[in-house]
């Protein structure tokens, strides 16, 4: 069967099974859902694309097959072909938006995928993650908080840096309104304050400039701002190592010179 014929066949079967919610047979829906998942791995790009669109639209009607659908999507995200992986990244977003119960799991997967080093793929992953956060902050932001204040294991620390890069990479006018509208946003801000003490100088400055400062400007929170100051002072006072791993000792003047530019924005937050 050609790609075009396979695509037409798929659309006809889907239309018959899901076209009428009142008359559709559950057994027929399960059958077509299974075929739809198989088509996601078709040799034809046009069929894969058509199947992904149908899956996004019909996911909430798939019942107990939703778990199988998610497993198939995860397989797509690990496919050797870039075009197939891109379909998987977008489906993680689409299925979460169609069925919010899957938002936490899909968010978790997308956070892990932030380690992708291909610029085009990473952009797609970041956009999919942002769309879930924008539409479902209460279900997705707690996952980011878990990565921010994780157990300190090496893989968790690396993912924490990726989460910080993702959050600070969005413009403030995109991310701050989301954090302001939901209680989970305040939890994320608390998590960011906690990681300041161990963040790199670059990440600490980005967190303040792109997230804390704009957030506190719209919603003052003296206690959290005070904690931010304490965290960055702890960061500054922590031992610094050179490229050989040796601890660098700073005298008083060096400490002040290092400390002031990195703490001034925090003091501005607290006392503005």
Annotated CATH architecture of the largest domain? Alpha Horseshoe
Order of helices and strands: HHHHHHHHHHHHHEEH
Straight-line N-to-C gap: 69 Å
- How many strands appear in the DSSP assignment? 2
Number of helices: 14
The global form is elongated
Q: Using the coordinates above, name the CATH class of the largest domain.
A: Mainly Alpha
Question: Mind describing the biggest β-sheet?
Answer: 2 strands, antiparallel
Polypeptide structure, described:
The protein is built from 14 helices and two strands, in the order αααααααααααααββα. The radius of gyration is 23 Å and the shape is elongated. It folds into two domains: 1-135, Serine Threonine Protein Phosphatase 5, Tetratricopeptide repeat, CATH 1.25.40; 153-272. It is mainly alpha-helical and 272 residues long. A two-stranded antiparallel ribbon has the order 1-2.
Provide the descriptors you would attach to this structure in a database record.
272 residues, mainly alpha, Serine Threonine Protein Phosphatase 5, Tetratricopeptide repeat, 2 domains, two-stranded antiparallel ribbon, 14 helices, elongated
Short note summarizing the structure:
The protein is mostly helical and 272 residues long.
Describe the secondary-structure layout.
Elements (H helix, E strand, L loop, with lengths): L2 H16 L7 H14 L5 H14 L7 H12 L4 H17 L4 H11 L5 H17 L1 H12 L5 H16 L2 H10 L1 H13 L5 H18 L3 H16 L2 E2 L5 E2 L3 H20 L1
Antiparallel strand pairs: 1-2
